[in-house]
Amino acid sequence: MAKNITTWSGTVLGLHKTPRSFLPMKSFGSLLLLAGIGIEGDRHATGEAFHSDRPEEGRQITLFEEETIEALLRDHNIKLKPEDHRRNITTRDVPLNHLVGKRFKVGDAVLEATRLSTPCRHIEQITGLELFNQLTNRSGLNAKIIVGGEIFVGDTIKLV
Amino acid sequence: MRSKIHSVTTQIKSITEDLNNVKIFTLSDPEGWPLPNFKPGAHLDVYLQSGLIRQYSLCGDHKNVSQYKIAVQKEKNGRGGSNEMHSLKEGMILPVSLPRDHFPLAKASRHIFIAGGIGITPFLSMLPELIREKVDWELHVCAKSETEIACHSLLKSYEKNINFFKHLSNNETRLSMNSVISKISCDEHLYCCGPASMINDAVKTGISLGDRLHFEKFGFDDDLNDAAYQIILKKSGRVIQVPKGQTMLGALRIADIKVPASCEGGICLECKTRFFEGSPIHRDLAMQPDDRSRFLTPCVSSCASESIELDL
Lengths: 160, 312
Description:
The complex is a heterodimer of chains A (about 160) and B (about 300). Chain A has about 160 residues and is of the alpha+beta class. Chain A has helices at about 45, 65-75, 120-125; strands at about 10-15, 25-30, 30-35, 40, 60-65, 90, 105, 110-115, 140-145, 150, 155-160. The two termini of chain A are about 20 Å apart. In chain A, about 35% of the residues are buried. Chain B is about 15% helix and about 30% strand. Chain B has helices at about 80-85, 120-130, 150-155, 175-180, 195-205, 250-255; strands at about 10-20, 20-30, 45, 55, 70-75, 95, 110-115, 135-145, 165-170, 190-195, 215, 230-235, 240, 275, 280, 295, 300-305, 305-310. The radius of gyration of chain B is 20 Å and the shape is globular. The mean pLDDT of chain B is about 90. The interface of A and B includes residues 21, 26 and 47 of A.
């Protein structure tokens, strides 16, 4: 029987937020995570996100793999920048699709993955890039914040 | 009114009055966050409190995303949008759409612009880009008189340029479309924005330019010469006559058929309606090409066949 051994440890490559729907995401060196709420100053925390008319406890913070950015460029010649995918944390070496239902640490904060993010025409509308189909099954991860605190670019991501 | 989260929230930072009933609005994010990018020639849909949606070209430099500038001329006999815009005050919140890029700059060695009245606005976002990129341009501004040139204050910095030409109909410097178009070489593009009569003249005179002629029309095209036709309403079986000179939307309204419509200029697609039989003449500026085989916009579209069947 296979043992449940974690063999991965990832890194925070980028942190982004925006206060309202449609506005560009800005890059930050750190973000303040508020347990059970969201990121201080981010649209998911203030109810000003595009999807805030369908509130969802599990969408307090979102993550996206840098490996997907690389694959879009390599396989489809789509140049997606970290601020374009509109998720809050850009990760490296983190198997986001395998984390649903699990708790993991980002720096000292603890997140619980609730569901996979799904591709969204809203991103196409904002970026002008046709990437809906290309983001199928690799559109990132939604999570809620179990333990808040300040997280930083370069923080380690690992299972609790 | 469009919900806050489904629009770009802007605040009116300043309103300056220009000549000829034009007000220039400077919009920015209420907290100074950068606004979404736009390309030269883009426009915004403005969502007014009354429910009207109106389109205004962005007339600032696209490199400055801390603010949007739009210019609005008050139309005495307009459809209400410009009057409502002119009643707005500094500090008010004004929801707008993402910038829409229906009138982009093409790749060309030289760009020739012809602006009629308030039609100068899209070119005001194109000129800074061309000057920065050192691409040749030529601007023809047409008005009845000197004082009726729209956006005087925004044009000031270009007026001394040797490529800037004023055409005033009160002093016999009226634009000759033919003299401008005949000098356009094969790697140059012509852009025209203004009233329907000016666009129709450019289209007729510049037919040889093919896809090197770009135009953006504003206001209602009163040159409707389409033949009369019938609308057949599939759901009710009613037949409505559309006489020559009448819009499809107008005929539906007279028959008391309620079709939601807002811009009435073929841009917002609020009135987009499915059709089944018939040959529509599409005049919208926004529908995806694929959609045109199934939908039409009754506010501007017409019909080339004797009748058209709508999903109403």
